Amino acid sequence: MNDAVFYFFYNLAHRSDLLDQIIVFYAVYFPYLVVLFAGIFLIFYYKSLRAFLAVFLSAGLAVLLAKIFKSLIHLDRPFAAFPDIQTLFAETGYAFPSSHATFFFALAVALFFYNKRAGWWFMAFAVLIGLARIMAGVHSPQDILAGFILGGLSSLAVAYLVKRI
Q1: DSSP states of 7-39 as a string?
Q2: Tens digit of each residue's pLDDT (9 = 90 or more) over 79-110
């Protein structure tokens, strides 16, 4: 099933230069804008260092956990597993779980605890980034899904700790 879903999204790439550029934008460059949007939102809307630190601590912890899992699991990226895959950009390292999906879903869930509407928007951004990375051929759906789960759990843990402190 993972392979079928992967190929469904991957087959959207390599059809036109414009679509490939859009995929690369959402997979590579849009994440920087999302971090910027989150920081600006927290600074201007909440004006709270505590909220800013909690949100970015959640995302940072999530990426650290993702790196630990990658070093333990060693799951190859789709282009290494399937010889017919041509990625839209270069990527190295192991795939599982996706650090991008982990970081951006953790960011979204943490923001959700402070502002539900903003949280939903950032969850949509995380899904968009994850789908773009599948279409680009650098992640499979299981990498993205595992990243979402790990990111969500990381944010729940940090929210619990922040509430206790």
Answers
A1: HHHHTTSSS-HHHHHHHHIIIIIHHHHHHHHHH
A2: 777 888 788 787 877 778 999 999 999 999 99
pTM of the predicted model over 0.85? yes
- Measured in whole angstroms, the distance separating CA 107 from the mean position of its chain's CA atoms is 9
Contact 96, 77 (CB under 8 A): no
3-state helix, strand, coil in the chain (%, to 5): 80, 0, 20
Query: From CA 34, how far away is CA 22, in angstroms rounded?
Result: 16
Nearest to 88 by CA among 28, 42, 160: 28
* Burial class (CB within 10 angstroms; exposed 0-12, middle 13-18, buried 19+) of 104: buried
Q: Are 158 and 64 in contact (CB under 8 A)?
A: no
| 67 vs 33: CA distance, rounded Å | 23
